[in-house]
Structure formats: structure tokens, C-alpha cells
Amino acid sequence: MKAVLINAFGGADVLRIGEVETPSPGPGQVLIEVIATSVNYADIVQREGNYPPPKGDSEILGLEVAGRVSALGPGVSGWSVGDRVMTLVGGGGYAEYAVAYADHLIPIPQSMKFEEAGCVCEAYITAYLNTFMLGALKDGETVLLHGGGGGVNTAAVHLCKALVPDAKVIVTASPGKVERVAELGADLVVDYKNRDFVEEVKVYTDNKGVALILDHIGAAYLASNMKSLAIGGRLVIIGVMGGIKAELNLVQMMVKRQQVIGSVLRSRSVSEKAAIVSSFTEVVVPLFERREIRPLIHKTYNLNEIVNAHEAMESGTHFGKIALRL
Ligand SMILES: NC(=O)c1ccc[n+]([C@@H]2O[C@H](COP(=O)([O-])OP(=O)(O)OC[C@H]3O[C@@H](n4cnc5c(N)ncnc54)[C@H](OP(=O)(O)O)[C@@H]3O)[C@@H](O)[C@H]2O)c1
């Protein structure tokens, strides 16, 4: 089968299309003919050699796929060859065929195209897991989402507006994306390059701070995030684009009864991911079915344009997801 291969870790130019053996599904797994996938920021980090796949997962890049079930592994029931499915994969998405666990499959709603479905799992499940299952965002609370123009964060804004319409959503964005984030429904957008989000949060919340922060900047934002968090607030850290080490004032954290939660989706066990997927399928997939939300696709590339697709993500000019068509 055709797949995107890496000669050596490095910039986008290390990516090339090559031929590899088609994988076979093991017990509890299915083989999927991949019709669409998408670029996630983690793919860039893996390509650079800093995010190896969990043991047992494919070395090929790509964390999610949409396509048709092509073969069932031993012990799989409830799925048939030809079913339209979307799913998380630990790796292997940038290829004509990928192996996934049957317990992680989500039927693609009739109203959804493969291209959209290939942009659902990594971004929306990450947003759902961390904002709702771990972050426990409720109506009446205020949430701060960083980088509202990215894949995960456009998904997070969609989910907040759809699932907790009475929550207030504050989003940080670079100047060129502020208007589009506001159009997504954010209640306040802070241009993080020219404004101090701590001050803006303070004014907006009448000095109370926000109940939840979804953060992928890490060290560079830790102090400011803690200042922006309300008493009893939760800070969920899902990325480290701004560094991995920072100081935390534990006394202030204790006195304000705040929680700092670290979370990664990819390295979770098969059964943990199955439980998350099951909750997501029940709560979020009907929103896609009814077209109340749909993935925001910045641009779709063919697989043989993978270098351009990675360069586009690294330029940071995208708004929403970068889709890949097989
Ligand atoms: N832990 C997990 O399980 C998990 C799963 C999926 C993704 N992630 C992480 O989530 C992050 C986003 O992934 P993605 O695929 O959605 O990437 P993406 O589409 O490239 O989005 C990244 C966003 O970060 C924003 N950003 C960069 N610097 C910023 C800053 N200083 N302040 C605020 N925003 C800033 C960018 O906004 P501007 O363009 O406006 O600057 C961009 O919208 C990555 O760090 C990724 O590793 C974690």
C-alpha cells in the first residue's frame, strides 16, 4: 500500500510517499481502507523525532482516519466489511490502509462526508475529554480556551456552545484570527499578541477568574493561567508549545483549591479510549448527525501534497483543520 514515510526526523521535506506492506488486523481490530485523514500538530512533533508512537502502534504518522471497514480481525463482531467509520489510531493514518480497534470505531453519520469525518476524532475527542469529562465544564461557568483558531480549539468552541450554551467562552487568538473566532460564538476573544489575557479575564469575570482553562502552551502560560483561574478552578494542560518546565506557587493553589490536570489521549489504554469514545459517540456524534456542528476545514490536500500540508500547519496560518484526502 501507499503511505507517507520518513527518511530521517526533521523538517517537512523528510516526508515522502512510499510503498509498505498492508497491515493485518489483530484480535479485536479491523482493517480500514482510509479515505480521509488530517494533519494534527502532534504529527509535526513526531516528524521532528519528539513524539514516538506508543509501543505496538504504527510508526507511520496520522492519528485519525475515516474510511470503510475492509477486513475484520479475530473476535470482532458488530461491524461489517464496507461500514463507513471514523476512528482514532495510535499511528498509521497517513496510509491507504490502517488498523484500528473495533471498540474505537464510530459510525460516520449519513450527513457527513469522509473528508469531514477524517477531521473529527483527534480534535473533537481531545476537546470533549478535556473540557467535559476531565474539565467538567458546566452551564453558568466561564472557560478560557487558548489558540481558538487551531484544530482542537475550534472544536472546543463548537462543543462549549452546543453542550453548555449558558457557559461563557473566552478565547485567545492571534490578531488575524480574532474575528473568525468571534464568529464561532466566543463571548470574548483576546488578541494574545497585543493584549494581556490575565487583565482581560479579570475585567470580564469581575475579578473572579475562570472555572476552567484548556491549555496547550504549558510552561510559558502557567503563571498567567493560575492568575486567571477562579477559586476551585481547573487547569487542564494538553500541550507544551511554550515549554515544559515552570514554577507553580503551591500555597496559592492550595488556598484557592485549584486543580492542575495533565492529559494525553494517545498513550491511554485501549479500554480507556473505548470508554471515552463510547461517551463521545453518545453525547457528541448526534450533534454532527443533526449538522448542529461540523468540522471546520481550512483546506484539503491530496496525500502526495503532504509536504505542503505540513508546511501549512507550521506556518500557523490555518484556521480549523487541515484535511488529507487519500
Ligand atoms: N494531550 C492530548 O491528548 C492532545 C491531543 C491533541 C492535541 N494536543 C495538543 O493541542 C495543541 C493543538 O493541536 P492542534 O492539532 O489543534 O494544532 P493547531 O491546529 O496547529 O493549533 C495550534 C494553535 O495554537 C495557537 N497558539 C500558538 N501559540 C499560542 C499562544 N502563545 N497563545 C495562544 N495560542 C497559541 C495557534 O493560534 P494562532 O495561530 O492564533 O497563533 C493555533 O491556533 C498542540 O499542542 C497539540 O500537541 C494534545
Automatic annotation (TrEMBL):
Keyword Glycosyltransferase among record annotations: no
GO molecular function: NADPH binding; oxidoreductase activity, acting on NAD(P)H
Record keywords, A-Z: NADP, Oxidoreductase
Cited InterPro entries: ADH-like_N (IPR013154), ER (IPR020843), GroES-like_sf (IPR011032), NAD(P)-bd_dom_sf (IPR036291), Quinone_OxRdtase_PIG3 (IPR014189)
Domain of life from the UniProt record: Bacteria
Residue span, Enoyl reductase (ER) domain: 10-324
Entries under SMART domains matching the protein: PKS_ER
One Pfam family it belongs to: ADH_zinc_N_2
Matching PANTHER family: OS02G0805600 PROTEIN, QUINONE OXIDOREDUCTASE PIG3-RELATED
Protein name: NAD(P)H-quinone oxidoreductase
